[in-house]
Amino acid sequence: MYQFVYNKILRLLSQQVPATGIGLFRVFYGLVTLQEICFLYYFNHLIFDPVPYIDVEFPGIPLFLCLWGMVACCVVVGYRYQFALTANYLFWIVFVNFTPMQRDFDGGFDTFMIGVGFFLLFMPGDRAFSIDGLRYKLRNPFKHYNQYPPATVSALAYHLPIIVCLGWLYLDSDVHKQFAEHWRNGLGSWLPATQPYYVSALDMSPLLNLEWLQKTIGYTIIVFQFTFVFFYAHPRLRAVYLCIGLGLHLGITLTLNIYPFGMGMLICYVLLVPFRWWRTLVDCFKPKHPSLTVFYDQQCPLCNRTVLTINHFDLFGCIDFKSAQEYAAKYPQVVAIGMDTLLTDLYALDGRNRIYSGVETYRQILLKMRYSAIFGVLLGLPGIKQIAERQYRSIADSRQRINCNVECLVDTPLPDTTWYHRVFEQYGIQKPKALSMKLTKIVITLLFLQLNSTVHYGIFYRLPLDYEKLAFSKPISQASNALLMVSSTFLGITPHALYLHDHFEGYDRILGITYVEPNGTEHWLPFVNEQGRLLAPNWGRVHSMWANIAVTPTIDNQRLHKFIMKVTAFWGQKMGINLKDAIFNIKMKKIDAPTDWVFDQLHKNFLSQWLTIGSVKWTDKQISFDMPTDINSL
After folding, report:
1. Which residues make Cβ contacts (< 8 Å) with residue 281, sequence separation at least 6?
2. Are β-strands 292-296 and 319-323 bridged in parallel, bridged antiparallel, or unpaired?
3. What is the pLDDT of residues 124-165, one digit of tens each?
4. Which of 91, 208, 405, 438 is the most buried (most CB within 10 A)?
5. How does pLDDT run across 307-343, given as a tens digit for each residue?
């Protein structure tokens, strides 16, 4: 196996491919992280306070979330790439492992994001769609943008994250699924989508009520996950696995209320898109001829930097820039302006031979680049246009011109301090075989850590064996747990036993909470509604807290009371309820989680009747419970 892995790594290491997918991968990873930070900020009192708004244990959390948000923005735009990715990776580890997020508010994708973030530390994510790429160009303003070749990276940067973050994860998940009856019956995707706590606001009943479709989807997922790591790279199968994977995780995002998990998995599929698809997509939007030709002063450093900046953001090549000194004479409309006048402003010529200058040139640039058209519209509004013209005039009249000689054309790039450049380009080019040997050992180590998780928790943990009678089982189990703690914390390698039989077996009751006004009127909290659905924005990790920890097949009263307290205190404050004297009713209704297909099961669970089983009362910001001692017997 060592030689097989070594040969694969050596071949992929030397193969150069476009950096487009890596850049988009970084952008989407940053966006998913940013939305999760916004979610944490909104629910920070519910998640981090022992008693929301009353007992605030971590008052600095909003500050650190804002700092993390700034780091995530840097990741999205590709600014200070190595620092931003390192800081983001550390923020994920700290928040997941040293706050209540891990214990009570598991997002279902936290370890996955840590694992992906680890690989991004060593990936060339700054080679495409990044501010760092622009900073590199701006160091050499007199070097035309056409002189920069398209960025390329090692093919290994694409394949290694796919294999570890998707391929091995799927295999681990597939092993666990073999022990779940509803998955063996082909209903693995159907059952969660019939449970009120787990569904989104979209009613998927027309699809759920087609038994053949649901079983086809269920068995397809099992086959897909088992074979993915072996066949995804095959040229004829790559598009097939891409489309099935996108459909699978898009379905999770739309159907279930664990949308962060679905979106987190979707970002990895950017790496799976064939390169020709990106070229075809760009060609669909790229005009046959530039929509606007802009003439600039070649001897003005500010003008040259402006050209480089606009071209960097002109993703579809809609704008063409030409030196006024070299090309103006070829355009009669421009010659009529006169060279002295032409060099005082930024002039542009569109496809209809209309001339623009100054701020109007910038406005046309924004409009012609398409995706930035809204800013072009705003720039033309009264008031904004006048302010922009005054600012433009003050800058244009004070700019300096220089006579560029050989020295100003010398390439003085920014030093590349990324780990990818140091490891894969500097060391890899000098000693490719030595680097391949080191990477082979690392990959085999990662495989061992993954097998530790899969074999221990996916197979032996689920086999009906009496391990207490085996003398060697205890030390092996302890060692395995220690390895899993390390691999889960820093690499995101963890058991992926999601929504199996041990989760839904006995899940025959759900709870809701209503608020009773002083006049006796009863209102549902904006948490669980009359159908039993968890309402937005109580999805993701808040859903996990309520549906996976508070309300389970075997309800623990201590945990339930803790989360009822958190939910009533949090939403009480949000709704303006005075907790000096407030009463909330606890509702329960029966549902069913069958392992065999049942027609219209989702609506049957929706229509089940609620019963009031108890109440909680807040008095002077102290909570008391009047509830059955054993809810499981109801």
Report:
1. none
2. parallel
3. 999 999 999 898 888 877 777 777 888 889 999 999 999 999
4. 208
5. 899 999 998 889 999 888 778 778 877 777 777 777 8
615 class by beta-carbon count within 10 Å (0-12 exposed, 13-18 middle, 19+ buried): middle
Say if strands 581-590 and 611-619 run parallel, antiparallel, or are unpaired. antiparallel
- Do residues 534 and 215 lie in contact, with contact meaning Cβ atoms separated by under 8 Å? no
- The answer to whether 500 and 179 are in contact (CB under 8 A) is yes
Q: Is 198 helix (H, G, I), strand (E, B) or coil?
A: coil
Q: How many whole angstroms separate alpha carbon 355 and alpha carbon 350? A: 7
Q: How far apart are CA 87 and CA 225, in angstroms?
A: 32
Per-residue tokens: 39: 């979610």
The CATH class of the 287-409 domain is alpha beta
Q: Is 200 helix (H, G, I), strand (E, B) or coil?
A: coil
Tokens read off for 310: 């606009």
- Return the DSSP state at 552: -
pTM greater than the 0.90 cutoff: yes
CB < 8 Å & 24+ apart, contacts of 340-347: 342/295, 343/297, 343/300, 343/401, 344/396, 345/396, 346/294, 346/295, 346/296, 346/303, 346/306, 346/396, 347/294, 347/295
Which is nearest to 557 in space by CA: 514, 511, 524? Answer: 511
The 3-class secondary structure across 262-312, one letter per residue, is: HHHHHHHHHHHCCHHHHHHHHHHHCCCCCCEEEEECCCCHHHHHHHHHHHH
- DSSP letter for each residue of 126-158: TSSS-HHHHHHHHTSTTS-GGGSPPPEEETHHH
Give the Å distances, CA to CA, from 488 to 476, 478, 485: 18, 15, 5
